[in-house]
Design a protein that fits this description.
With 289 residues, this protein is of the alpha+beta class. It is built from 13 helices and five strands. It has a five-stranded antiparallel beta sheet, with helices on both faces. It is elongated, with a radius of gyration of 22 Å. About 2% of the residues have low confidence.
C-alpha cells in the first residue's frame, strides 16, 4: 500500500477529469485527457506549487477549505469527498483528540424538556444541540420529516442532511435561505474554538465544499429566532411553515417549533397527523412578533 494515498487520490482524479467536464476548453496537443496541475490549481484557487506538494506527499495537512475547493473542482461525489477527508486524516496521523477541557456536547434532552415536547403533540417540534444534532422530537415532527429522509441517520443532524443529502434541495424550495439560517445559527451560536464545531465544519467543508464554506466564512450573516420554510412534501404536498426557536442555555440546546403559515398547510398537517381538519390554526406572520 502506498504511503502517499492522499497524493495518489488527487493525481488519479485530476487525470480522470476532462477539461470539458471542468468547463475548460480542451486546447491543442494535450498529452493526457485529464486536467493539468495548473488547471486544477486555478479551479481550486491554490498555487501549482502547493498542489504539486500535495500530490507528491510533501504536504499532507491541507486545510478543510482547500480540500473542499479541490473536491468542488474535481466534481467529487459525496462518497469520494468522505474518502478524501479520511485519507487526509490518516495522512496527518489520525483525527485530532477533542480538548479534554471542552464542555461535553449534549446528546440527550432532559426529562422535563421531553415532557414539554409531549405536551406540544402533534405540533412538529424538536430539540437540537449546538451543532444541529436532533436529540428529541415530537411524533408530529417525525410524521412531517420522516418521509423526507431527515431522520434516516442513526444520529440525524440538520446541517449534514441539508448540505449532503441529495433530497434536501428538492425538499426545501427555499434551500439557500434555509442554508443561510442554519449556518448563521451555527457560526454565531458556538465559540470558534469549540472542538465539536470544528469537527463538523471540517467535515462539511470537504463534503459540501463552497456551499458550506462560503456561508461559514460570512460573518455578516446573523441568525434569526423566527423564520419560515417552504417544503415540498411527498405525501402532504406544498407546505409553508413558520418556526420559533427557544434557547435552553444550560444544556446548549434549542427547542424549535414549526407552525403552519397558512390554512392549506394547517389542513395538510392535520391529515398527516390523522386529525380532523381545522384542529391546527394557521399563524399569521404578524403573530410571530
Amino acid at each position: 500500500m502506498s504511503d502517499n494515498e492522499l497524493g495518489t487520490f488527487l493525481r488519479t482524479w485530476r487525470e480522470a477529469v476532462t477539461p470539458a467536464e471542468a468547463g475548460l476548453p480542451a486546447g491543442p496537443r494535450r498529452r493526457t485527457p485529464g486536467l493539468r496541475r495548473a488547471e486544477l490549481a486555478t479551479l481550486a484557487g491554490v498555487s501549482v506549487e502547493y498542489l504539486t506538494r500535495l500530490e507528491q506527499g510533501r504536504d499532507r495537512n491541507p486545510s478543510a477549505q482547500v480540500l473542499g475547493a479541490l473536491a468542488d473542482a474535481l466534481n467529487l461525489s459525496l462518497t469520494d469527498r468522505m474518502l478524501l477527508r479520511r485519507l487526509t486524516k490518516e495522512a496527518d496521523g489520525g483525527d485530532p483528540l477533542l480538548c479534554a477541557a471542552a464542555p461535553q456536547l449534549s446528546r440527550a434532552a432532559r426529562p422535563t424538556v421531553r415532557a414539554v415536547l409531549d405536551r406540544l403533540e402533534p405540533t412538529p417540534a424538536l430539540v437540537v444541540n449546538w451543532i444541529g444534532d436532533i436529540l428529541a422530537h415530537t411524533a408530529g415532527y417525525e410524521r412531517l420529516v420522516g418521509p423526507l429522509g431527515l431522520l434516516d441517520d442513526e444520529r440525524p443532524n440538520l446541517l449534514r442532511y441539508l448540505f449532503t443529502d441529495a433530497r434536501a434541495r428538492s425538499v426545501y424550495r427555499d434551500w439557500d435561505r434555509v442554508a443561510d439560517d442554519l449556518v448563521a445559527r451555527l457560526r454565531h451560536g458556538v465559540p470558534l474554538g469549540d472542538p465539536y464545531l470544528a469537527e463538523l465544519a471540517d467535515e462539511l467543508s470537504v463534503t459540501a465544499g463552497a456551499d458550506f464554506t462560503d456561508r461559514f466564512a460570512d460573518l455578516a450573516m446573523a441568525p434569526r429566532r423566527t423564520g419560515s420554510q417552504h417544503i415540498e412534501h411527498p405525501e402532504a404536498g406544498s407546505l409553508r411553515l413558520l418556526h420559533e426557536t427557544l434557547a435552553l442555555p444550560d444544556e446548549g440546546q434549542q427547542l424549535v417549533i414549526h407552525l403552519p403559515e397558512d390554512d392549506a398547510t394547517a389542513a395538510a398537517l392535520d391529515r398527516l397527523n390523522g386529525r380532523r381538519p381545522g384542529a391546527l390554526r394557521a399563524v399569521a406572520m404578524g403573530e410571530t412578533g
